[in-house]
Amino acid sequence: MAPASDPPVVLRVAGRPVGRYVIRPELPARLSPRPHLHPVTTLAGTRVTELAPADHLHHLGVGVAVPDVEGHNFWGGRTYVRDRGPTELDDHGVQHHHSFQLSDPDGFVEELRWAASGAELLRERRTVAATALTDTAWALDFTFSLTNVTGAGLSLGSPATNGRPGAAYGGFFWRAPKEDTAPDVFTAHTEGEERVHGSRADWLALAGTGWTLVFAGATDATRRDPWFVRAAEYPGVGSSLASAARLPIAPGDTAVRRIVTVVADGRLGRDEAAALVRKAVSQ
Predict the structure, then answer these.
(1) pTM for this one?
(2) Which is nearest to 160 in space by CA: 56, 63, 241?
(3) Cis omega before residue 39 (within 30°)?
(4) Residue 171 — left, alpha, or beta (φ > 0 → left; ψ -120 to 50 → alpha)?
(5) pLDDT in tens, 207-239
(6) Short-list 92, 120, 126, CA closest to 21
(7) CA dist., res. 141 & res. 139, Å (int)
């Protein structure tokens, strides 16, 4: 296991730094501490992530966060309790970096332990890779595999499965920077936060001032998960592990998801976004 003083991992594309992976963040328990990427930038250096913004201190750049792992909060902040609403509870879990199986300038393979109340619940294998697409775009390939190590069944939930309609957040999540104007949101077939949120689409784009992020599910299981989208309140995109029902993981079983994100300078149109996604997923 790496010492606590280990520096962050820096991702590079064609020699340019594009992402900083924080292994052991020093954060209060209420924020559900976890490894995360921040800042992530375009090739021109525009920052496209936010860390602990005032509106949601528990939003930590790019990573994996689940608000309900068998009753433990690995998302951070308040816990949504059925018939009570958002409630301050001492129920937060921690994702511990365990080791790197591989660490190169363009990516890494990491082992993590998800623990709460002194017990390990999940063991994660996380694979992250940065690849060049064009002179103005690159792709972040992010795969996570969650294995139930408790010896008993457990399930993943969300505020939506606990009684809050439209709040199926939990899984891969990207918090983008808040700007004066809300970003545009669109897929191959529709546009607007209200239409895209909760939908299933092969990809969706979030276009801000001088940057565009295009998110794509890269496996059949990932594409079946609905998108969680916020634009007007704050800019953020996630892939929902538990939307209409909790996601069960039997003892020893593993849930795997893969998201590929195009990080581009400028505001892409629909055809440009689709072409870059195809190239990114096929690499």
Answers:
(1) 0.97
(2) 241
(3) yes
(4) left
(5) 999 999 999 999 999 999 999 999 999 999 999
(6) 126
(7) 6
